[in-house]
């Protein structure tokens, strides 16, 4: 019997279906949909978006298409990806935080960055960073042990943990003196500037909106802060002839394999910002959602704890001995993909799934929809980690996109999965996790798939 079959035996209760926002009515007006997008983008889609292969609409003067078929997604993100660029709105929202880093760079600049950074994110390179992950995780578990039995905000704790891991893997130092400032920047941007306003959606990128002016002032303060982090790391130095000890060493030493070019100081700053923000925010959110689901599903939580106990090997078992823990994480990323929407604008004419695409048409690939689509998944709204266990049929490569796909797939995917799997195993292996209040936590789509509030949990030692 395969592992998947062991966890799918008939006497298990019906799977958990976590709460989600109500779907938008199909006859919602354009202005109503824009208002819904500002409040919560994932609540702006109606039932058709979860059922149809292609949903055609309008984005101001141009056509828009939601793509829910793997072949169409492959065409846009892989086969003809150079014809599809980020939308002006996406650039407006992300550029003040990420600059011209890997996530937003285009063309030759992106290719140079990708080639240069790739060696820093190989499994071997990530393996050298695992001790940083473990040290931060153990400190968080010790803090939770001291407060066991008292109400705890696990969202805040996971943000703190992911930030510590980001700081230590990037700079080899604790984020204690910098963590609050970094979190303040993230919260300020998320609450004030990340949600697109009407003019952000309407005006071309070269025409500044009032929000753009505020974003520019924010970026000045943000880049100064990142520069201070880099200066602190450089002041710490690196031993002569010593091997790289963190991502910063790897990025400073990195050279484009074709040109031999290194990163400039400005490019290095944007890469640091991208890696810290994209890494810590998405991982913290994924860990929160995993712990929330496990608190709602005690049977699955106990199965995960049993696996961690059986894996042994001290406090940090090998990843290959944690298939169920990894499956829980994979299923969490299906239900709550960090990047809930991938938006692309056509640079030129094309044909996608039989539809004639014109220049400036907008194509939407929404992992939130794709991962819950009724044609692609059995019981798509249910929390069923057995989908991802060894022996289970794998999902279509273009139907499951927690890290994107194609040339622009997230370069840090392996890093994030190692970090999150180790952290989830350690926390659930150490504590039984319960929700204190029964009010549902709703996902909201603002840059990433965030909870609408931070519920309180109670932890008891196992």
TrEMBL record:
<keyword id="KW-0408">Iron</keyword>
<dbReference type="GO" id="GO:0005506">
    <property type="term" value="F:iron ion binding"/>
</dbReference>
<dbReference type="GO" id="GO:0020037">
    <property type="term" value="F:heme binding"/>
</dbReference>
<dbReference type="GO" id="GO:0004497">
    <property type="term" value="F:monooxygenase activity"/>
</dbReference>
<dbReference type="InterPro" id="IPR050121">
    <property type="entry name" value="Cytochrome_P450_monoxygenase"/>
</dbReference>
<keyword id="KW-0479">Metal-binding</keyword>
<dbReference type="InterPro" id="IPR002401">
    <property type="entry name" value="Cyt_P450_E_grp-I"/>
</dbReference>
<keyword id="KW-0560">Oxidoreductase</keyword>
<dbReference type="InterPro" id="IPR001128">
    <property type="entry name" value="Cyt_P450"/>
</dbReference>
<feature type="binding site" description="axial binding residue">
    <location>
        <position position="410"/>
    </location>
    <ligand>
        <name>heme</name>
    </ligand>
</feature>
<dbReference type="GO" id="GO:0016705">
    <property type="term" value="F:oxidoreductase activity, acting on paired donors, with incorporation or reduction of molecular oxygen"/>
</dbReference>
<dbReference type="InterPro" id="IPR036396">
    <property type="entry name" value="Cyt_P450_sf"/>
</dbReference>
<dbReference type="Pfam" id="PF00067">
    <property type="entry name" value="p450"/>
</dbReference>
<keyword id="KW-0503">Monooxygenase</keyword>
<dbReference type="InterPro" id="IPR017972">
    <property type="entry name" value="Cyt_P450_CS"/>
</dbReference>
<protein>
    <submittedName>
        <fullName>Cytochrome P450</fullName>
    </submittedName>
</protein>
<comment type="similarity">
    <text>Belongs to the cytochrome P450 family.</text>
</comment>
<keyword id="KW-0349">Heme</keyword>
């Amino acid at each position: 019997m395969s592992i998947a079959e062991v966890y799918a035996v008939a006497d298990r209760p019906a799977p958990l279906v976590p709460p989600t926002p109500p779907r938008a009515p199909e006859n919602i007006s354009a202005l109503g949909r824009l208002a819904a997008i500002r409040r919560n983008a994932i609540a702006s889609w109606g039932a058709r978006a979860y059922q149809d292969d292609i949903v055609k609409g309008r984005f101001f003067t141009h056509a828009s298409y939601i793509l829910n078929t793997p072949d169409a997604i492959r065409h846009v993100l892989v086969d003809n990806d150079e014809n599809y660029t980020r939308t002006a709105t996406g650039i407006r929202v992300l550029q003040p935080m990420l600059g011209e880093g890997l996530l937003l760079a285009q063309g030759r600049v992106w290719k140079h960055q990708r080639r240069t950074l790739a060696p820093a994110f190989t499994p071997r390179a990530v393996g050298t960073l695992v001790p940083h992950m473990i040290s931060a995780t153990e400190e968080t578990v010790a803090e939770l042990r001291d407060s066991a039995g008292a109400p705890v905000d696990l969202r805040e704790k996971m943000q703190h943990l992911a930030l510590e891991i980001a700081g230590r893997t990037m700079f080899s130092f604790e984020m204690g003196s910098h963590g609050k400032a970094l979190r303040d920047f993230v919260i300020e941007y998320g609450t004030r500037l990340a949600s697109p306003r009407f003019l952000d959606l309407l005006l071309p990128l070269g025409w500044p909106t009032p929000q753009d002016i505020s974003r520019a002032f924010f970026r000045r303060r943000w880049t100064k802060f990142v520069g201070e982090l880099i200066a602190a790391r450089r002041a710490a130095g690196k031993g002569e002839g010593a091997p790289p000890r963190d991502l910063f060493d790897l990025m400073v030493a990195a050279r484009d394999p074709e040109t031999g070019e290194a990163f400039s100081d400005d490019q290095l700053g944007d890469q640091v910002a991208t890696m810290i923000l994209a890494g810590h925010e998405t991982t913290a959110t994924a860990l929160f959602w995993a712990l929330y689901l496990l608190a709602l599903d005690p049977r699955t939580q106990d199965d995960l704890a049993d696996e961690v106990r059986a894996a042994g090997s001290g406090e940090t078992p090998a990843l290959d001995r944690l298939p169920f823990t990894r499956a829980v994480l994979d299923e969490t990323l299906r239900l709550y993909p960090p990047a809930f929407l991938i938006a692309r604008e056509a640079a030129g004419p094309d044909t996608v799934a039989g539809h004639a695409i014109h220049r400036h048409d907008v194509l939407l690939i929404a992992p939130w929809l794709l991962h819950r689509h009724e044609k692609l998944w059995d019981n798509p709204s249910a929390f069923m980690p057995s989908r991802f266990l060894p022996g289970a049929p794998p999902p279509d490569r273009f139907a499951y996109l927690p890290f994107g796909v194609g040339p622009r797939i997230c370069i840090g995917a392996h890093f994030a999965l190692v970090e999150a799997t180790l952290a989830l195993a350690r926390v659930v292996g150490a504590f039984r996790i319960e929700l204190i209040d029964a009010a549902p936590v709703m996902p909201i789509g603002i840059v990433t798939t965030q909870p609408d509030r931070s519920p309180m949990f109670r932890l008891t030692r196992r």
